[in-house]
Recover the amino acids of this structure.
């Protein structure tokens, strides 16, 4: 409860800081959401993607 | 037949074939509100007979003028049977009790409201940004177009003094391996006597390699390499002479041969585009 009170007083009380909080939160949320979605996708397609089987076909030092 | 029954007004009960009572169109006065128990203002058990009994039936508030010792003149029957809407299902649990002060719980309720607002806006901003960037990126060139827009030239295949032509974006591309003598000549040209003044250093990245578009700036013919008065390019259509740096020296063409954007990946390879 004390934490939420501090958060409210610091971030939500003024409209300016509230807007900044939303912007920063959107950036953080975008990173978490996108990378989380990618991680889930790769988990579900493990062994099927090119990045997973690339080492079988490409030798070191060759391009 | 149905329209006749509907329009017949007062006769419609006699024109109907069935006598089954169905629910009428009249709705409750306050729809969609949860009602928890009736809360009528009048006392239905009290007898409704005389002036004295009416005294108990009338509401206690509102305009009431006493004209006699024990009589109430302002007896209002209207609206005394309206149910009081119960909004407790829509209220937060902190403010359910009307007798309790809402002041203590105001902070937690406010924090909750702001948190919900902020979280919704964050998701909304993310969605809007994603939609806009999707639309904007759909306008740019697709990957297959971008892949065709570049060409890699292996420079070791071109001997000194030779010019090779490649097809790049539907146009001929000249890659010329200049000799030391040609480089010295082109660097030493007096810029003042050129039609389209441009120093040789501005047209090349490495002096050994001249990369220009093989399109004559006059009417778009393809010039012939290693020909003409200046040893560079010569356009057979109308006789424009270009030097070994692709600059116009003689003839009708107004501008130097165009230099595309290119970069050297390593000593052997150049990427144009």
């Amino acid at each position: 409860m004390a934490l939420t009170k501090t958060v409210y007083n610091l971030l939500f009380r003024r409209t300016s800081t509230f807007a900044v909080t939303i912007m920063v939160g959107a950036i953080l949320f975008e990173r978490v959401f996108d990378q989380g979605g990618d991680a889930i996708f790769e988990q579900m397609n493990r062994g099927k993607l090119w990045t997973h089987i690339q080492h079988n076909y490409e030798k070191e030092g060759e391009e | 037949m149905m329209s006749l029954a509907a329009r017949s007004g007062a006769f419609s009960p006699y024109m109907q074939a069935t006598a089954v009572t169905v629910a009428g169109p009249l709705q409750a006065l306050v729809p969609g509100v949860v009602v928890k128990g009736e809360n009528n203002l009048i006392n239905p058990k009290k007898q409704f007979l005389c002036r004295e009994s009416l005294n108990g039936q009338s509401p206690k508030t509102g305009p009431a003028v006493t004209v006699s010792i024990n009589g109430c003149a302002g007896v209002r029957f209207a609206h005394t049977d309206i149910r009081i809407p119960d909004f407790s299902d829509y209220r937060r649990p902190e403010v359910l009790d009307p007798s309790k002060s809402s002041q203590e719980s105001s902070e937690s309720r406010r924090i909750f409201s702001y948190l919900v607002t902020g979280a919704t806006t964050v998701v909304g901003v993310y969605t809007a940004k994603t939609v806009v960037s999707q639309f904007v990126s759909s306008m740019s060139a697709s990957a297959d177009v971008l892949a065709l827009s570049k060409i890699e030239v292996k420079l070791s295949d071109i001997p000194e003094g030779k010019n090779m032509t490649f097809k790049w974006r539907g146009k001929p591309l000249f890659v010329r391996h200049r000799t030391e003598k040609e480089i010295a000549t082109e660097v030493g040209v007096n810029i003042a006597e050129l039609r389209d003044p441009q120093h040789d250093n501005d047209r090349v990245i490495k002096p050994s390699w001249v990369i220009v578009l093989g399109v004559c700036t006059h009417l778009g013919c393809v010039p012939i390499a290693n020909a003409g008065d200046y040893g560079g390019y010569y356009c057979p259509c109308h006789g424009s002479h270009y030097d070994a740096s692709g600059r116009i020296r003689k003839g009708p063409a107004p501008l130097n041969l165009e230099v595309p954007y290119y970069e050297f990946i390593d000593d052997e390879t150049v990427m144009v585009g």
Notes: The interface with chain B takes residues 1, 4-5, 7-8, 12, 18, 21-23, 25-26, 29-30, 33 of chain A (CB under 8 Å). The CA atoms of residues 20 and 26 of chain A lie 10 Å apart.
